[in-house]
């Protein structure tokens, strides 16, 4: 499907992440063979680097900005896309990573700790992030009443909620809103160039059985994430946050 969420934020990112129980391969030949296989299918991913923390990243650059990427860390394998025009096209890279990881990196079902599908929405705001988050999401609520104390000023407001989506608790949804205002910025209400970020993740914890199908789970998680974005995240979190920012500009 085409991207229906871009009008609600200043940046949208779609990520898939596999977290493992065991450390992932770091040998030169294995790492290069894995990324070369990705590049054969997606030639535009041609920028390869090793970051300061040791992760390996293969990414594409579009007009000076990051487009799609695949990252290999010590116990995490991820693939993402920035500002996708079409979700189905964005999923193709992630599906390819899931398909080849057992053969190229030895990641088996027994080794998978969790599989995440995450939508990240960025909201540009040069001001006190915590105040605008509290106003948009807690105003008029019992939680928000905490800031009604005489002389009180919002110093930190980064709400995070997790809900189980299945009877066994292995399928979960998490929403988190992250302020980028540093402590000094909060005190002075100074401007920050970094955005407010809203993270919405649908996570699956495999049961370790051979019957678990990673590709099927990924497809189900994508459908669930898209549905909940429409039904819950946009109307109850993204739109109020966007409106609160607009009123302060």
What does this structure look like?
- With 249 residues, the protein is of the alpha+beta class.
- The protein has one domain (6-248).
- Helix content is 33%, strand content 28%.
- The protein has 5 helices and 9 strands; from the N terminus they run E-H-E-E-E-E-H-E-H-E-E-H-E-H.
- It starts with 10 loop residues before the first strand and ends with a helix.
- The model has no long low-confidence stretch (mean pLDDT 90).
Give a nutshell description of this structure:
This protein has helices spanning 28-41, 87-104, 129-138, 183-188, 214-248, and strands at residues 11-20, 47-50, 56-62, 65-72, 76-82, 112-123, 160-164, 171-178, 196-204.
List keywords for this structure.
single chain; 9-stranded antiparallel beta sheet; 5 helices; alpha+beta; 249 residues; 9 strands; 33% helix
């Amino acid at each position: 499907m085409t991207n229906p969420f871009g009008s609600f934020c200043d940046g949208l990112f779609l990520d898939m992440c596999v977290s493992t129980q065991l450390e992932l391969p770091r040998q030169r030949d294995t790492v290069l063979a894995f990324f070369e296989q990705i590049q054969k299918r997606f030639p535009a991913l041609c920028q390869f680097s090793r970051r300061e923390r040791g992760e390996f990243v293969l990414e594409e650059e579009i007009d000076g900005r990051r487009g799609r990427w695949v990252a290999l860390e010590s116990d995490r394998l991820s693939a993402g896309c920035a500002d996708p025009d079409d979700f189905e096209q964005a999923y193709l890279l992630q599906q390819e990573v899931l398909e080849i990881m057992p053969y190229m990196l030895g990641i088996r079902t027994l080794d998978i700790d969790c599989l995440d599908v995450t939508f990240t929405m960025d909201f540009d705001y040069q001001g006190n992030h915590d105040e605008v988050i509290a106003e948009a999401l807690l105003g008029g609520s019992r939680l928000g009443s905490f800031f009604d104390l005489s002389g009180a000023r919002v110093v930190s407001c980064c709400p995070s909620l997790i809900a189980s989506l299945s009877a066994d608790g292995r399928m979960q949804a998490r929403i988190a809103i992250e302020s980028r205002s540093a402590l000094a910025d909060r005190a002075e209400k100074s401007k920050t160039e970094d955005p407010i970020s809203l993270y919405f993740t649908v996570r699956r914890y495999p049961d370790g059985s051979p019957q678990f199908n990673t590709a099927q789970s990924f497809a189900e998680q994508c459908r669930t994430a898209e549905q909940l974005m429409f039904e819950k995240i946009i109307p109850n979190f993204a739109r109020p946050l966007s409106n609160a920012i607009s009123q302060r500009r």
